[in-house]
Amino acid sequence: MSVDFSLLRTLHRMHRQLADIDERMRKGPLQAKIAQNNQVTFQTALDQAVESSKTNRMAADARQLQLGEREAKVENMKGQLNAADSNKEFQLLKDRIAADEQANSVLADEIFEMLEKQDVIEVEVATAKENVAKATAETERIINKVRNELKALKEERARIEGELKESEKNLPQDVQERYFRRAAAKKEDALSETDSRTCGNCHQTLTAQIVSQLMLSHAVFCQGCGALFYLKEGVTGR
User: Fold this and answer.
1) 85, 115, 116, 238: which is deepest, by most CB within 10 A?
2) Rg, Å, the chain Cα set
3) Tell me, what's the pLDDT at 238?
4) Are 59 and 114 contacting, i.e. CB atoms less than 8 angstroms apart?
5) Mean pLDDT, the chain, as a whole number?
6) Per-residue confidence at 57, pLDDT binned at 50, 70, 90?
7) How far is CA 140 from CA 63, 99, 127, 128, 205, in A?
8) Residue 229 φ then ψ, to 5°
9) Bridge partners of 199?
10) What are φ and ψ of residue 227, in 5° steps?
11) pTM for this one?
12) How many Cα atoms within 13 Å fall on the side-chain side of residue 53?
């Protein structure tokens, strides 16, 4: 059974084109998924920054309220100094005022640190918002790009697949069954180019008998991987 090697080259090229399209169609949605995951990551960071801002602000407000109450208490005790009935009571009030003022000073320092921290957090929130906005725009861009590419790839795939089916009709009848079985299982690896020395797929060395059959343009399948051979251009059969 003889075969046209130029036809096999064409079939193999089409199979490779389809394999390349399939790979590109697989990668497109993966790119969109990565972009979506990045967007989720940035959104999570923003949510955490906003929550940290809210928690720190509430804590600072509570401390400020506490400080205000303590300062009012100190002022009240200062007013009681002139009304002290004895030196002992006077000294006790002064000691309490001094202790409370010291505690208030510590509390004021804590509040100052929390307000400084709030400034840092607000910068983080602003940065996180920018990141989310950029990630959202990038995700939308990639999704639209992938959608358009998939549409074009599907159209291109349908065209090549149609041409492939038409070309396959030109295969000899006694080759078609084995070829179609291999193509269904191995796709582009159903065929293999050879330089008449080794298989282009599995690199198994060709026997002298196989080389002789190829030189007569016979249909030969690799004994290693089962691919249908065709001679490399420049290496011609009779």
Assistant:
1) 115
2) 40
3) 40
4) yes
5) 94
6) very high
7) 44, 61, 20, 18, 51
8) -80, 150
9) 194
10) -75, 150
11) 0.71
12) 15
Residue type at 141? R
Task: Identify the bridge partners of residue 194 per DSSP, sorted by sequence position.
Answer: 199, 231
Structure tokens that stand for 57 in this block:
């602000």
Tell me how far apart the alpha carbons of residues 214 and 225 are, in angstroms, rounded to a whole number: 17
Q: Tokens 């940065």 belong to which residue?
A: 127
Domains in the chain with CATH codes: 14-170 (1.10.287.1490), 171-238 (no CATH)
